């Protein structure tokens, strides 16, 4: 059980779920989680944009899409500007995290016409999670992105 100080009020809910053998991860699930995490680490390591060093860099280079009254509340969309940043490797990075059980579609007018492509790690033959390569999409003419359920997807512009 998680520590009582933070979670004691929820032990009556958490306990039966942790005891449920039907949801206990097996070797395949554990291996997939390990490999998916390694892919995320490889994406992080591919550009210094994922490791901005100063508050000024963050303010200057990170902005969020999918904000305001029309936002999709289950999708985080962040944009990183790599223009002139040492080690950036990409001119732009646009990442999405969809926590929903279903795919989500976002149309971002400011991203129309850009040459986004999936991050090379997503396209690698050994990628742990094939959903990014198989199910995510970008239509440059409309600025429309489709993000598969419960995924993190990274697009780049070289």
Q: Tell me the β content.
A: 15-25%
Along the chain, the helix and strand elements come as HHHHEEEEEHHEEE
Biggest sheet descriptor: 5 strands, antiparallel
Shape: globular
Fraction of residues in H or I helices: 25-40%
Distance between the termini: 46 Å
Rg calc: 18 Å
Q: Structural class, from secondary structure content?
A: alpha+beta
What is the number of strand segments? 8
| Structure annotation, total helices | 6
Low-confidence segments: none
Could you report the average pLDDT, rounded to the nearest whole number? 96
Strands ordered across the widest β-sheet: 1-2-3-8-5
Structural account:
The model has no long low-confidence stretch (mean pLDDT 96). By secondary structure, the protein is an alpha+beta fold. The chain has helices at 4-7, 11-19, 27-45, 55-61, 120-123, 131-135; strands at residues 62-65, 75-81, 92-98, 104-107, 117-118, 137-139, 144-147, 151-157.
In short:
The protein is α+β, with helices and mostly antiparallel strands. The protein has helices spanning 4-7, 11-19, 27-45, 55-61, 120-123, 131-135; strands at 62-65, 75-81, 92-98, 104-107, 117-118, 137-139, 144-147, 151-157. It is globular and about 50 Å long.
Which descriptors would you attach to this protein?
158 residues, alpha+beta, five-stranded antiparallel sheet, three-stranded antiparallel sheet, 6 helices, 24% strand, globular
SSE layout and pairing:
Blueprint: H1 4-7, H2 11-19, H3 27-45, H4 55-61, E1 62-65, E2 75-81, E3 92-98, E4 104-107, E5 117-118, H5 120-123, H6 131-135, E6 137-139, E7 144-147, E8 151-157
Antiparallel strand pairs: 1-2, 2-3, 3-8, 4-7, 5-8, 6-7
